[in-house]
Amino acid sequence: MIKDSTALLYDLFADLLEYPSLTTPLKAGLCYERLQVPQPEAGGLLEGFYNETERRTLEELEELYTTTFDMQPVCYPYVGYQLFGESYKRGAFMAQLNEAYHAFGYSGGLELPDHLSIILRFLGLDVTNRQGDFCQALLNEGLTPALGKMLQAFGAHAKNPYVALLLALQSFLVHNPEKELGHG
């Protein structure tokens, strides 16, 4: 299946929100380039993250990721946690995600179903999926408010490059990518 422009951006954002690898700077550059024309605001926000991935070593990126999202993190990259904390509602939310994933033949692998990158990849499956009621609710009532909470965790003057990545993702989502990017 050939992915449309929006699906490719969902996948690139998902890649950037996973543990860094040698391809992280390349993917950050690709995401930056793909955002520049249709969404210059999101592209401008992503530029800071891209520049940081270019100037840091892989070890520095891994350490930054770990302190940001994993070990006593600044913020947890789990949508359900951001929305519901560690409550039964998060469990119900993850069960609902798993059910939807199964219906589309999608698997998040070993990662929890509410991880930001897993949800982004699910949303990038195809345009029909993104425009469906479940995905629109997931975007509007799940992903968007969770991103807002994640950004609040950093504080107003955070110098962490992941702030730029999350702000770029937030801008990308808010500015209706389907309408602005088209389907190809």
Shape: globular
First-to-last CA distance: 12 Å
State the order of secondary-structure elements, H for helix, E for strand: HHHHHHHHHHH
Share of helix, binned = over 70%
What does the largest sheet look like?
none
Task: Please tell me the total number of domains.
Answer: 1
What's the Cα radius of gyration? Answer: 16 Å
Tally of separate helices: 11
Q: How would you characterize this protein structure?
A:
This protein has one domain (5-77, 115-181). Helix content is 71%, strand content 0%. It is built from 11 helices and no strands. It has helices at residues 5-16, 24-36, 40-55, 58-70, 79-84, 88-103, 116-123, 127-131, 133-154, 161-174, 177-181. The longest helix is centred in the last third of the chain and has 22 residues, at 133-154. It starts with a helix and ends with a helix.
